[in-house]
Amino acid sequence: MGRNPITRHSSWYDNQLVTDEGEKILSAIDDWAIKKLREHHLVWSGWGPRVALPDIRTPLGSDWGVRVVEDEDWPKLRLFFLSLLWRAAASSRREFSDVRLSADDVERLRVMVLEGNVEPKLFYPVQLIQISTIGQINNQTPFIDKKKIPAVEGVTEHEVPIVRFYFDGLVAHFDMRSEQEIKDSEAKSLYLGSEHSLTIPTISYEASFQKQNLEAIMAEAENLAGRR
Hints:
Distance between the termini: 15 Å
Helix content: 25-40%
Mean pLDDT: 87
Number of helices: 5
């Protein structure tokens, strides 16, 4: 945002981040994860000819829905997402400049990924949200944001700081609160790897923040290109 539009022919990959041995570790995590994501139709590339998710519970007339997916390997998938967070926070590429974590947290993430350890589960827990209809394919670099949590019985409306990742129709929110704050919250059952049963909110592409944000970024880039 605020920069000239450029083309990335492959990815946001940072080839200065790890050694050859580190690359083998990350490649193994990535290869396993993409198969798991496609197996459960968590990314658009796993949908085949479908244009909408078939297994969601959608309130009548609503763009929002929910799906419940069972798998014993959710902790291992959490490792993949922790590796994404570490890569973004440790990278010196300007595209990741918005993701700034404390040095202690970055080191802790590095060791967790290196050792294949996903504990404690309330350290940057991950919640997944799916885009339930096919939209314009894009991969957006992550950024820090705030998520509004609506009021429920006994809890007032409040905001939670998150790191937001998006790729191939899947949104991942990393909760940035302290482990103690999350322990006292009501939503930890939605976090990836907490239980074998994972509840995933869904929203149609047409009503999604992703669509609105992408259109705004594209319009801004076109204006900048036109003025220069």
